[in-house]
């Protein structure tokens, strides 16, 4: 009799344990689905959010005190204050700029390879692959704002950083042409 009640007790514990595990898995799945529903392209957005949060943390970590030659202490952030930052811009904003009277004040810079560029690009874009950018900076006017894009956003971020590091003051990162195309904006094909 005792063995039967012991087995029943173990069976109840096993069923309860299975129920708890299934509940955890279902709840985790619901959170992932809910996040996907809110964001649409959740994987890319999560990476972008992580990158932006990481950049923000990095900037906060850079607020360290340094000494100038005269011994006066200042914050490193204040010393870097003159260095411009990359501004993130949406495809919608870029489209509005290109269709405005201000479009002549901008350079659209495609930093993909020549082969990728031929497959489709934003009308009026200049193609300088990110791997060649530092050696071809003289092809870009420092008097104009530069909007940088690539395929998905990684190379454009690197290119924008290169531009800022080399003294370009009005640098915008649109990310990737994929988001431009997904917004149903026009592209030009060279093929």
Largest sheet: 5 strands, parallel
**Multimer state:** single chain
| CATH superfamily caption of the largest domain | Rhodanese-like domain
Tell me the distance between the termini.
Answer: 83 Å
Number of helical segments with 4 or more residues: 7
Note the beta-strand portion. 5-15%
**Mean pLDDT score:** 78
- CATH topology title of the largest domain: Oxidized Rhodanese, domain 1
Model regions low in confidence, pLDDT < 50 over at least 5 residues: 37-54, 59-71
Q: How many whole angstroms does the radius of gyration measure? A: 26 Å
Please indicate the count of domains.
Answer: 3
Summarize the structure in words.
There is one protein chain. By secondary structure, the protein is α/β, with parallel strands linked by helices. It folds into 3 domains: 2-40; 41-82, no CATH class; 84-191, Rhodanese-like domain (Oxidized Rhodanese, domain 1), CATH 3.40.250.10. The chain is built from 7 helices and 7 strands. The protein has helices at 2-39, 42-61, 76-79, 91-98, 114-119, 154-165, 177-182; strands spanning 65-67, 73-75, 87-88, 106-110, 126-127, 145-150, 171-176. The strands form 2 sheets. A 5-stranded parallel β-sheet has the order 3-7-6-4-5, with helices on both faces. Strands 1-2 form a two-stranded antiparallel ribbon. β6, α6 (154-165) and β7 (171-176) form a beta-alpha-beta unit. The longest helix is centred in the first third of the chain and has 38 residues, at 2-39. It is elongated and about 80 Å long. The relative contact order is 0.11. Mean pLDDT is 78; it is low at 37-54 and 59-71.
């Amino acid at each position: 009799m005792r063995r039967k009640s012991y087995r029943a007790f173990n069976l109840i514990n096993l069923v309860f344990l299975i129920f708890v595990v299934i509940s955890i898995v279902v709840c985790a799945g619901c959170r992932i689905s809910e996040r996907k529903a809110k964001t649409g392209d959740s994987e890319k957005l999560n990476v972008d959010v992580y990158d932006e949060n990481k950049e923000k943390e990095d900037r906060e970590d850079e607020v360290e005190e340094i000494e100038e030659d005269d011994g006066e202490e200042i914050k490193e952030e204040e010393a870097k204050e003159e260095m411009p930052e990359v501004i993130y811009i949406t495809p919608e904003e870029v489209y509005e700029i290109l269709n405005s009277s201000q479009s002549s004040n901008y350079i659209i810079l495609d930093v993909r390879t020549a082969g990728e560029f031929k497959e489709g690009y934003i009308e009026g874009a200049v193609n300088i692959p990110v791997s060649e950018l530092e050696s071809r900076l003289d092809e870009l006017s420092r008097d104009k704002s530069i909007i940088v894009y690539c395929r998905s956003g990684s190379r454009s971020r690197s290119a924008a950083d290169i531009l800022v590091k080399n003294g370009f003051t009005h640098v915008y990162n649109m990310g990737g042409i994929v988001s431009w195309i997904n917004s149903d904006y026009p592209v030009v094909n060279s093929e």
